């Protein structure tokens, strides 16, 4: 009987503790919020509003989800995302604050899931002189003057992809939500990145890297709970395999350099060859690996999403399609059969790029991002405490009718004079000193791909559903299946 009472008492105590511990955690979590912080709720520890935001992104209602917060708390509010307290901001002033404020106040800081997957030495994480050193090294390869010589190689990759996966087909799915190699535009962009930036040619190694890469992306925005069978855990394991493969690749490139290979044959070789006045390698091996992973994600995101939504646009908007086709056919008819596109050809694709820019305005590949306050700072009349995240979004500014009249209307003429668009209002590639170093690479990749898609094929949609979800990048319903037919070459 005494033993029974003892067990009952112990069970009661355990039950009370199980009830009190979460209450204590919630109370202490809320006490961390000092006075004068923006209104809002941090929610439960670790989880916060993460699940709500991810659910809204996957149903393409994230803007509405944020608008509901704005109606309740105002344009600035506190929340908790992926295990960290954060302040949500948006608008032109917010974009300028994020992209133009120096590192004495805010610094790059991704959520734990992103930094753990991509690595802590990529430029998304670096600050001050380290950020400048690595960014300058990347720009030395990705600037227009350097990329001019690679247009032909990019042209070749696009044509090879279409020859292997489009010619002879009656139907393709443009963008898979599942992890599948094949005919997709995202596979095309991945091939270009592998070949041009990393010197990884077609074969088993590229296929393995592609598999790991796709699993990495799945967990980029996820709750950082490293348990088996979670997206986060699978992404971490994929990242580890990809980093190991890249390390082997760097070893090979280092040997190639020692044997007299050109330092400009690809991005990795370029980074390995950069030396200081003491002949010491400027960029560490770890920094090369982490920034290669970043560029894989960044280059893939923008270009594959943009190409997918451009194909959907052309199928739904005959007038835009006809105007782009006319511009591209003018270029094609002046090219001898089999000759690659040149930099001068890309310069002529002015209307095509305006269409691409307007597509990016309506369907930004990156929903938003994060910074971190390195000290208590004032913004909009509120205090952002030291070490809190700053969560900003792009699409809400690009759909602001005070900046872009009739924002839901597709109108490429908005970009006739880019200088007429107020600074920090159109930010698919960032802005100011934080503008994406791969901007020019994405432009070339997009224009070359569109040239061959539109001059060599026609297509019609096989799915009338125009909705899309974010996971975390936008993907059209059912992956945008299309019926294709070859066009007669001029």
From TrEMBL:
<keyword id="KW-0349">Heme</keyword>
<dbReference type="InterPro" id="IPR017972">
    <property type="entry name" value="Cyt_P450_CS"/>
</dbReference>
<keyword id="KW-0503">Monooxygenase</keyword>
<keyword id="KW-1133">Transmembrane helix</keyword>
<dbReference type="InterPro" id="IPR002401">
    <property type="entry name" value="Cyt_P450_E_grp-I"/>
</dbReference>
<feature type="transmembrane region" description="Helical">
    <location>
        <begin position="288"/>
        <end position="311"/>
    </location>
</feature>
<dbReference type="InterPro" id="IPR036396">
    <property type="entry name" value="Cyt_P450_sf"/>
</dbReference>
<keyword id="KW-0408">Iron</keyword>
<feature type="transmembrane region" description="Helical">
    <location>
        <begin position="12"/>
        <end position="29"/>
    </location>
</feature>
<keyword id="KW-0479">Metal-binding</keyword>
<dbReference type="InterPro" id="IPR001128">
    <property type="entry name" value="Cyt_P450"/>
</dbReference>
<protein>
    <recommendedName>
        <fullName>Cytochrome P450</fullName>
    </recommendedName>
</protein>
<comment type="similarity">
    <text>Belongs to the cytochrome P450 family.</text>
</comment>
<keyword id="KW-0812">Transmembrane</keyword>
<keyword id="KW-0560">Oxidoreductase</keyword>
<dbReference type="Pfam" id="PF00067">
    <property type="entry name" value="p450"/>
</dbReference>
<keyword id="KW-0472">Membrane</keyword>
